[in-house]
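Subject: for your reference before the review

Hello V.,

The reviewers asked for a structural picture of the protein, and I figured it would be easier to keep everything in one thread rather than splitting it across files. Below is the amino acid sequence we used in the manuscript, unchanged from the supplementary table.
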Amino acid sequence: MRTSRPARVGQYTALLAYLVFLAFPFLWLVSTAFKPPRELGSLHPTWIPDDPTLANFRQAFDEQPLLHAALNSLLAALAAAVIAVLIATPMAYVVARRRTRLAKAVTGWVVVSQAFPFVLLIIPLFLVLKNLRLINSVPGLVLVYVVWALPFALWMLAGYVRAVPPELEEAAAVDGAGRVRTLVSVTAPLLAPGIVATGLFAFITAWNEFFFALVLLKTPEKQTLPVVLTHFIGAEGVADLGPLAAAAFLATLPSLVVFALIQRRITGGMLTGAVKS
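And here is what came back from the structure prediction:
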């Protein structure tokens, strides 16, 4: 059934409006980051700065240890993404291939776990980390990020595993490959787009996370970038808008760059060429 011209126009209009809605905060952030103080206080703000400047970026680096905080965020996000993927991949394989009550229970736990808000989890997590002596440490924060990202990573990878034809694994078994060899040599390469997408999700989630880092990290030299950004807001709630926008703009760049580099692998066909039709 072909879609009528008015319907297509309506669809494209809605899509364009949605894209504008998503892009507006980021574009305004970029514009604010390059505006001098005179334009920031103007009653008639403009999209494009009349006199663009880099003074906000210099002031942001002078006032706060952004590079050190970014390094803490990078270490925590990378470690959480790698560990979550390494744990979730074999678990997803078992959940997808074995139709048992345990697998169904795990799937139900994944769905239910996403409904719990942060505030209900922070107290038990804080007590566990306190007993492990991991409070105010990056490894403790990584452990929290892995726990938080693992349910969704498991659910996401299980969908990719189900899309892999079981005939490929059966053929590997006929050739004498065991379960582990089949998973490593046959299934895992076909899951590459799913593994990359899952790792990206875990990385971005950990990179942008604020609440856990605020509660668990007390020493300034161990704080992550989202927590350091709050230091641009004064005690009375007045924000140093120019440096804050500049620092926030820099904080969003890693996520954008990582996504731009691997988006082809995410959107590419997972099984292109794997099975002859």
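For the response letter, the relevant points are probably these. The first helix runs from residue 5 to 33. DSSP finds 13 helices and no strands in the chain.

Happy to draft the paragraph if you're swamped.

O.
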